[in-house]
Design brief:
single chain, alpha/beta, six-stranded mixed β-sheet, three-stranded parallel β-sheet, 5 helices, globular
């Protein structure tokens, strides 16, 4: 099974997703409606190539993608299936906004967790996609949460705000920090596809 999470405007702007190289896509999972997680143009490109892909998200995203003029009838499932579980978790507060987006965490086969823009959740899996940097949170908060949840492997997400030099430096520091705790850390390159 092939999963794609949160195809947002940074992914599109950086041309980090080469659809020509992807031959299969089974699930498109969108944690919430913010543009860095949901770029309508990119979603339409994905659907043009993979019209049978299952899209899962929350009710807010379903409404946006399902209604014209934005989405125009894109079907979004808000309940899980045998492989994908959805759990509502809070989006972290953003200093420049009084509204908080609905945010959903995805759990894949009970083994992989992706919490979107949240550091406030208790459910974890062997493999945790961990938001490590954001205007709404700190790397220290992320590390403390990971130590508490104790996954076997961490895959960093939500680090677009770091330049490449900072990203590589922080990845190395995080790998060194987690190693003695028995937690693996897999830092990704932009556009890299991995199998877990």
């Amino acid at each position: 099974m092939v999963f794609l999470f949160d195809p947002g405007n940074y992914t599109s702007d950086e041309k980090a997703l080469d659809l020509e190289k992807i031959t299969q896509l089974d699930y498109l999972l969108i944690t919430h409606e913010h543009q860095d997680h949901m770029d309508l143009g990119l979603i339409k490109e994905i659907l043009a190539k993979f019209p049978e892909v299952k899209i899962f998200s929350n009710s807010s995203v379903a409404e946006i993608l399902g209604n014209p003029p934005a989405g125009g009838g894109i079907e979004v499932q808000t309940k899980g299936d045998d492989l994908v579980t959805l759990e509502e978790v809070p989006h972290e507060k953003i200093f420049m906004s009084n509204t908080v987006a609905k945010n959903v965490m995805f759990i894949i086969a009970g083994k992989f967790s992706h919490p979107g823009d949240s550091h406030h959740f208790e459910t974890s899996s062997e493999i945790l996609a961990l938001p490590v940097q954001a205007p709404w949170g700190s790397t220290t908060d992320a590390v403390e949460l990971a130590v508490k949840l104790n996954p076997k492997i961490i895959i960093p997400i939500h680090d677009w705000h770091w330049n490449e030099k900072a990203r590589k430096s922080m990845y190395q520091r995080l790998e060194e920090y987690f190693k003695p705790l028995g937690i693996g850390f897999i830092g990704l390159e932009t556009g890299e596809v991995i199998e877990v």
